[in-house]
Description:
The chain is mostly helical.
Amino acid sequence: MLKQVIKYFIQGYRYVILDVPLLFETKKVARFMKHTIVVYCDPQAQLTRLMQRNNLIQEDAEQRISAQMPLEQKRKMASHVIDNSGDPASTYRQVCKLHSQLEDSMDFLAVRLLAVVTVTGFGGLLYMLMKRCII
């Protein structure tokens, strides 16, 4: 995962989307994220979709959902929420709006500047050390 993030960072992408299961439950990775997104749907749609996707009976699906952090709690923790309860066109509009916000954001500049300064500093230090060893 980290390799992919670095790859996209070097290629100049302004943001990278990671699909991280249990992001909020583990609390380890979320602290490194500038933005977090929760894709939300109403509880009945969540149950129905899980049953259809995983071919589960209702009882098994309910157990799986109850083992997770409630979606309402995840919504409160996320910096962005996409409501996936409606039709696909509505979800698409929300995703496009969020994409525009992230593309227009200048949050990535500070990280890029820090990376350039760090690489330049280490390069200069390495050059000085090599020059001393050769002379």
